[in-house]
Amino acid sequence: MAKKLIFYSFHFDNDVMRVQQIRNIGVIEGNEPVKPNEWETLQRSGDAAIEKWIRDNIKNKDCVIVLVGADTASRKFVKYEIKQAWEQGKGLLGIYIHNINCPRNGKCSKGKNPFEQFTVGTKKLSEIVKCYDPGPDAYNNISENIADLIDDAIKIRKNY
After folding, report:
1. Residues 53, 27: contact at Cβ < 8 Å?
2. Strands 6-9, 119-120: parallel, antiparallel or unpaired by DSSP?
3. For position 104, what pLDDT does the model report?
4. Packing angle between helix 76-87 and helix 47-59, nearest 10 degrees?
5. DSSP 4
6. What b/e string do you get for 123-141 counting C-beta neighbours within 10 Å, with b at 16 or more?
7. Are 125 and 115 in contact (CB under 8 A)?
């Protein structure tokens, strides 16, 4: 199976260590982590620069995966990444990561489905895009299922 190029969308401050574990699964590639000092420089450049960076980084990806922690759905740039993924015709997928253990903070509470706040025609985006809950054995379930979830997300998006 060919590896897909992925853009990960997540709340950096709360979830970066959980996200790193998912990146290390090795089934997928793309979206090299942004180093904290690079992100700080980008933030100082303003919202327009961040939005351009997001658009440019999503452009050559196959799928955008929103890794959903406790506060992900409320993050301004996560919302922008979801909007860009849909507008650019990319596969779009949510994966709850509240049961991935963070070495600093342990597990977190389950966040809201970030796709609930978007509509496509007369449907909520949450009726189209899957938000996968891997359950208590999250790491292993994500590892076993992520490639198929990505393929499904890409197929679903082609129908709209």
Report:
1. no
2. unpaired
3. 85
4. 40
5. P
6. eebbebbbbbbbeeebbeb
7. yes
Domain boundaries defined on the chain: 6-158
Of the chain, the end-to-end C-alpha distance in Å amounts to 25
- Cα R_g (the chain), whole angstroms: 15
Q: Could you tell me the two tokens for 105?
A: 């903070």
Amino acid, single-letter form, for residue 87? E
Measured N-to-C along each axis, helices 36-44 and 47-59 cross at an angle, to the nearest 10 degrees, of 130
The strand pairing partners of 29, in sequence order, are 5
Q: Domain 6-158: give its CATH architecture.
A: 3-Layer(aba) Sandwich (3.40)
Inter-residue contact 39 to 12 (CB < 8 Å): yes
Question: Where does residue 65 fall: left (phi above 0), alpha (psi -120 to 50 degrees), or beta otherwise?
Answer: beta
* Residue 116 to residue 135: CA distance in whole angstroms: 20
Would you state the structure tokens that stand for residue 27, as one six-digit string?
A: 């089934």
pLDDT tens per residue, range 19-65: 889 888 866 555 565 665 677 788 889 999 999 999 999 999 999 99
